Amino acid sequence: MAKHGSVTHRDALTMVSGAAAFGALGGVVPHVAQAAAPMLGVSRPSIYRFKLGAFEVTNILDGYVQGNGPHPIFGNNQPAEMVRALVTSHGLPATRHENTYTVTVVNTGKELVMFDAGNPHGRSPTSGHLSGLLSAAGYKPEQIDVVVITHGHPDHVGGLMADGKPVYPNARYVFGAREFDYWNKGENIPDARKATRELFVKAAVPFGEKATMLKEDGEVVSGIRAVQAFGHSPGMLAFHIESDGKRLINWADTANHYIASVQRPEWHVAFDQDKEAGVATRRRIFDMVSADKIPVVGYHMPFPALGWVEKTGAGYRWAPATFHFNL
Ligand SMILES: [Zn+2]
Prior knowledge:
By secondary structure, the chain is α+β, with helices and mostly antiparallel strands.
């Protein structure tokens, strides 16, 4: 320790480097300190466009909601500790979860097709941003030719209307026939889904009369056809999108947690109305996309919500797209 009043080795070094810096500046000492750069807060990507054959696909982040989880939403029939152990082994927190909402817009060259319509405006400060971001992505609401609704839940139909008016005034609407009928008739709606039905009646039913009601394997436009994905909701549809031999599956809400539901498809999910049907749909679609190496967009996969399912020894894993689509 240096004695009081003496010059330590470190002080001496500081003086030398200070003198050197002074010399380098040609004897001019800056007398106004540079202001520290302001903190700007988190910035998240929210628009991602890629090519699929001759099609252009744009994923837009309608928003996100953070809350408690993953258990008991995911692994609803499993001990909390088991679910927490799986997600923490992948660096996620044990008791916090983020749900993201990604709308997919496909430009076929002939039609602009939008899958789902996002949350109601103002559902939360961090969700319901689709209509603003659509213009940032280069599209006007009037340009949307077809709106396809994968299923009738609020985060998918809530953005169809704003102030009682259609947000996409020139669009043709496409619903799964079974899904539309279920929410429209309103029979056997579980208590937990009463509000879902109410919103569906307000936001989606007005489009029903002029809408196309799709069968399980019906065609939306050339290159886009439905794939049965019942379970999460009674008539949910996934979609197979193909252009010039390039394929993509939009699996809607088949799996909504990229670890818990992809690695453990058999774990029940609280939001799946028919839990065992949800399991069967996950297995069938995971087997299809992993065997044929078909890329996937998933409404609740981490943004840009694009990746693959790889078969592993015990099950499956989510492999997010990196630069695959940029090449
Ligand atoms: Zn959803």
